[in-house]
Structure prediction request, 280 residues.
Amino acid sequence: MNPRVTEWAGLALDRKLVMGILNVTPDSFSDGGAHDSLEAAIAAGRRMLAAGADIIDIGGESTRPGAAPVTPEAEMARVLPVVRALARAGAVISLDTRHAATMAAGLEAGARIVNDISALRHDPDAARVVARAGCPVVLMHMRGTPATMNAQAVYAEVAAEVIAELRAARDAALAAGVEARQICLDPGIGFAKQGGQNLELLRATPRLAALGHPLLIGLSRKRFLGGVSGQDEAARRDPESLAAGLYALERGAHILRVHDVAGTCQALRVWRRLNERDDG
Prediction:
């Protein structure tokens, strides 16, 4: 794999990208219930698009620790109308799902990307759906399920083990027919990782980027950031999220998955300008 990736999902990676989180769920950890009507979800997606989101990630199943599973039928009823509306508005849609049926229906409805927290391992048909569609896919590292993952956050050396397990997930996807150029990797910050393990994994961003695929970092408003800053309320952790996100971008990450699209895009404009070279 070439560590100097330049494009993914039709988006150039010569600049850093922002993926906006749009949870159409009643129980997500930060914004559960905020977009529980079709009108509210579409309006939120349009605001993200106007604020500068490169990708909008739509999910209909909460994956917070201990969350109850959702059937594909319930998930599709939540997300498909939102996917259709925002795709018509010109958004690049990523579908956050573990279920092959939702993947297939979402791609047909206008989603361009599959974002699977289980790295195509939860549903035995998922890899086949992605390979047949030839679509971009995010493979995230997680152990167990949202209900069991915290008990599996046991590592001798978290970065080395996550990298090895991501490689294995990548290789399984390739063996199933997914093209290497379509794969983006996500170390799964907060998924089967606790407290300082997340900080250690973030410090290993250059090693993760060296795997040779686009690297997505999703740490927005997560509990470990509050453990550092002292902020207990998830919705008030945007400053911490920006600080950690910029740290990851400086070290090779390509995409930030965030709740606060407007604030992140504003920060990135300044960050990009500071990193411009004076050719004169």
Remarks:
- The first strand starts at residue 7 and ends at 8.
- The chain has ten helices and ten strands.
